[in-house]
Amino acid sequence: MKGGLMGVPIFFVVSGYLITDLLIQEWEQNGKIDIIGFYIRRMKRLYPALITMLMVTGTYITLFQRNLLTNLGKIIVSNIFYVYNWFEIRMGQSYFDKFATQSPFTHLWSLSIEGQFYLLWPFVILGLLKLVHKNSHRFWIIFAVSLLSAIEMALLFSPGKDPSRLYYGTDTRMFSILIGTSLAFVWPSTKLRAEMPAENRRIINLVGYLSMVILLIFFVTLSGENPFVYHFGMYLFSLVSAVLVAVVAHPGASLNRLFTNPFFSYIGKRSYGIYIYQFPVLTFYEAKINIGEHPILNGIVEILIILIISELSYRLIEQPLKKFDYTNALEEIKDVFMAPKGVPIKKKVSVILALTTVAITLVGSFQSTTVKKASSSDLEKQIIKNNKEVAKKNKQINHKDESNSASSSSSVKEDNINDENLKLSPKQVEQANNLAITAVGDSVLADGSAELQKIFPKMYVDAKVGRQTADAVQILQNSANSNQLADTILVVEGTNGPFVGNEVSDIMKIAGKKRQVYWVNTHVPTRRWEGQVNKDLQKNDKKYKNLHIVDWNSYCKNHPDWFYDDNVHPNPEGVKYYSHLVAKNILK
């Protein structure tokens, strides 16, 4: 779903409302707020599952997935102190890079914002309750601050730039929590009554269902790259979420009965664990399994694993440790080793397992390296370098500078590729030197563009990171309109999502019957659309005689060493095989 990222604002609004409502109740009942008690309750609720997830995940990474060791120690420490969102900002981590090495910790940024909220909010509430005497005034003060947060997000947003700083920042995301907290002052749960006039009940139900429809529209239509999201779209979404929360909180509303049934109550109690464990499960599972081949089956398996782990965590970790007296923790551990005969076997196993995961994670943390700013990755550096080379080459092609074009082809006259089937004959090299090609595609083409232009000096390349197939259609149409479309067309599309509509047919119409179109199929084993994209290409291959599918996916399947960590973009070694496979298909 496009707007899946909009689930976090709902979580923030709900959290802001519930925490503030509880603190107000405590003030009204006791005339004070026990801040230390509040901290202890929060820590007992949140830390057991979080620490367990961090230690178990750290252990798995240290033993089985060492490519994720980077910054492990700092990631764990920043999560323990609830500053991970600022750590991600400082390290230049992008939430929106589809093919960066997926981290099992990425989602924890939101818990850090929550932790910062828990730390500061009791003091803010105390100040408001003591200094401001009307709930309506308290409401407007908080609401005004929430608006300032949204304005900051809108002002800092820059089209074309990665919005991760805005997405992760406490200052630019706090408005959702503040909207929830402001609601608690004008819609306290203790003042809501199930008995209400029939007309009022109809109105509140209508408002509730209407807010659900609006939120669903947001979910379906908005993506994280849409400028509207940052220009008050997320703020509007949070306001509508607050309306829904208000309706659900009212005991007289139909939605209250819907969302307080046993099933939702069961899920709600385990929702924290489900959220905590989802990314580790998805990351580790998809690193081992090609989910693109059977997306539905693998999706079901992943959900089941997450639910099972969450249930075990709830029963064996969260509930028992919620009541545990941590002042005796060291004594309990000492007893396991100093007086083992009197200690139940269950406790022995638990303590030994816990200490083992901590020890292994510490080893991994000391072995981890520190890498700042993901944008300086080898892949991105390679694409930037390729783009510069391609821009020069395209300029030469446009100016028909044949001497410069020919000179650049000398590097392919001696093939240094191990696969004899992919080596180019002298005749094919000569053919490649004189063949005009229009190539359009996404980041995979950008990754291999320089190598392809060494083989095909007259190949004009238009490649862009994140490009969708619909964009390629327009680019090819513009080339055809200006009489610059070559008789041979290379298309590298499908990496960033499934085909929507008739893009393949549209491209074939632009090409006509005389031009030959070579389409490299997609290799995105960590994305669910891989199988669908390649099936659609095979279907169209039978439909059009001048469409030729370059089966890169099958050729590279057993060669993980040909790829960067994302298992999508070929590394320098893989690019040689990629470009030669394309060349052999074109030069048959």
Automatic annotation (TrEMBL):
This is Acyltransferase. It is found in: Cell membrane. It is a multi-pass membrane protein. One of its GO terms (cellular component) is plasma membrane. Residues 5-310 form the Acyltransferase domain. GO terms for molecular function: acyltransferase activity, transferring groups other than amino-acyl groups. Residues 390-415 are annotated as: Disordered. Pfam families: Acyl_transf_3.
